Structure formats: C-alpha cells, structure tokens
Amino acid sequence: MFTFSVRGAREAAVVGCIDDWIHAYLTTSPGANLPMAAGLRLQQRWWIGPVLVPTASLTRICGPEPEMAYRTTSEAWEERVSAIVAAAHDPEALPPLIVEWRGDELGLCDGNHRHEALRRRGEQHVWAFVWCNSEAEFLNARDQFVATR
C-alpha cells in the first residue's frame, strides 16, 4: 500500500516503483483520474521524480476559464481549491503533481487543483513526477533537472 504524499512518492521512487505509485494514485486515491491512468498504460513511460519544479512554469488544463481543456464550474473549482488551501499546511503532505515533459515545457496533467492551491499559498516550487514518452526524452529531461537543482 502506498502513501499518497511526497514522502510516499519518494519511497516508491527509491525502490523503482514510480509507475506502480502513479497507477495506484490515479486509480484508488480520493482524487482518482481513471481516464488518465488508462492512458498512461497505453505505452511505456519514463519517470523522473519526484522533483521540485517552479510553480509558474506549469499551465493548468482544468478550471472554470473558457480556454481550459477540462472545464468545471467556478463554484466547484473554488470549493475544491479552497479546501486544499485550508488543509495544505505542509505541501509535502500532498501528492506530487503529474506532468508531461514536452521539450520546452511541462504539461500539467494531474494536480490542477493542488497546483492552484499551492500557488495561492505562495509556493514558488511544487513537487512533481515528470513523465517522458521515450528514452531519448527521458535522458534529455533528466539532464535538465540535474542541471537546475
């Protein structure tokens, strides 16, 4: 059984179980995202993390704004984000965000509410798992993260 926090994510990474942690989180946690879990299983992924990434470097894809790929009502958005803000006294108690390496950017794929809550709390960096879609991308991305630590 995994703990869905930064500490639990680190423990999974140390024993080579990032993919298992991600799948368990996306299928069994209160914030389950079953379509994303299924999509990630369609091909091999290469994982980095958890690593700290600049909060401002991530762009949400979920929210009440018209340009969001996954729209929600303002009320539902605020209710969920506000609950996280109120409860997130320790950012490491939250699960890392899940982002996709896209060469010159990181795509925020899971954790939009957590991202917004941490941004509102003034966090300059957030914990994330980064996935790459090929070994070549992984090697490039890994080097980028090592260089910026």
Q: How would you describe this structure to a colleague?
A:
This protein has 149 residues and is an alpha/beta fold. It has one domain: Conserved hypothetical protein from pyrococcus furiosus pfu- 392566-001, ParB domain (Alpha-Beta Complex). It has helices at 6-14, 18-28, 34-40, 74-87, 112-120, 135-148, and strands spanning 46-54, 58-59, 62-63, 70-71, 97-101, 106-110, 125-132. Strand 5 and strand 6 (106-110) form a beta hairpin. Helix 2 runs antiparallel to helix 3.
Task: Give start-end ranges of low-pLDDT stretches.
Answer: none
Helix count, DSSP H or I runs of 4 or more residues: 6
Helix/strand-derived category reads alpha/beta
Strand content bin = 15-25%
Give the CA-based shape.
globular
Architecture in CATH? Alpha-Beta Complex
Q: Going across the biggest sheet, name each strand in turn.
A: 1-7-5-6-2
Into which percent range does the helicity of residues fall?
40-55%
What is the CATH topology? Conserved hypothetical protein from pyrococcus furiosus pfu- 392566-001, ParB domain
Q: Kindly report how far apart the N and C termini lie.
A: 30 Å
Biggest sheet descriptor = 5 strands, mixed
